[in-house]
Amino acid sequence: MQIIVIPLSFEFKTTKVQWAKAHAHIKGWWKRPDGTVDGENLVAEVSNADTVKAIQFPLERLPDKQWEQCVAKLSDDGTLERICDADVEQACSAFEPQLLVRSDRTYDIRYAAPTKPSQPADAWEMREEFLRLKLDCEKAIAFLNKWGSWDFREYALLSEMVDLQQAALEGLTSPPELWFSKDYSIPPALYRRPQKPYFTILTDKCEIAIRMTVTSDLLRGAEFKRCARRDCGMPFEVTSKHSRDYCLPYCSHLESVRRKRKTTKEGA
Ligand SMILES: [Zn+2]
């Protein structure tokens, strides 16, 4: 085996996108263009303001109870049996996915590179903000309204954002093997350019950019520690010989105030 090194440039850009929370209901199975059932995906009907549209919803994103009811069962003769659309809808009637939708037209969203006017941005700064989020729909919307696109779809699932956040937090602070055992670590498609370094990763998708920053940090052997403030836990890079325990002076200050208050209380 030979290891070859391919230099790459990495560019993250932001585009202006407005995001909103949407209500969605599962309606049945997603159908392929030829009309056959795609057993991995469901149809979710999303209502947002005055429009209703159908989007693809991954079956694996159902909560355990609904997933159990919808997943195909093996019948006695070994064939896969799926429940019909009406039964899927019935089984999932109480489930309302936490979903964010983008307001713009997204017909060419499948390209990793921006397809709208974009601004250069710092992917690491974006990641830092993402990792600090106590993710709920409102915080996710505020984050995306600032940074733009999430992934290749016209919607974002809160549960998927939470999973990536968790994986990045763990990945940065564990042996690299953990991160590289997951699909998250795989770099996206490269673009070719006429000048050096000839290959580039250019994207406006936060999901791709976050994954790429973790992959690149771990490849260059960066070492991360988690902030010692128990309600923070933010990973920060160990860059000097002086060991520090907190990600920001704020966290260190808060913990010292906490310790003082505790001693004063105990003293009183
Ligand atoms: Zn901290």
Helix content: 25-40%
The biggest beta sheet is recorded as:
5 strands, antiparallel
Number of self-contained structural domains: 2
Bound compounds: zinc ion
Global geometry: globular
Distance separating the two termini: 68 Å
Q: How much beta, percentage-wise?
A: 25-35%
Question: What is the chain-wise order of helices and strands?
Answer: EEEEHEEHEEHHEHHEEHEEH
| Spatial extent as radius of gyration | 22 Å
Across the major sheet, the strand order is: 4-3-2-7-9
Mean pLDDT: 90
Report on this model:
- The strands form 4 sheets. Strands 4-3-2-7-9 form a 5-stranded antiparallel β-sheet. A 4-stranded mixed β-sheet has the order 8-1-11-10. A two-stranded antiparallel sheet has the order 5-6.
- Helix 3 (123-132) crosses helix 7.
- It folds into 2 domains: 9-16 and 104-236, no CATH class; 22-98, no CATH class.
- By secondary structure, it is α+β, with helices and mostly antiparallel strands.
- The termini are far apart.
- The chain has 8 helices and 13 strands.
- The protein is 33% helix and 25% strand.
- It is globular and about 65 Å long.
- Bound molecules: zinc ion.
Outline:
By secondary structure, this protein is of the alpha+beta class. Helix content is 33%, strand content 25%. It has two domains: 9-16 and 104-236, no CATH class; 22-98, no CATH class.
List keywords for this structure.
268 residues, alpha+beta, 2 domains, four-stranded mixed beta sheet, 8 helices, globular, binds zinc ion
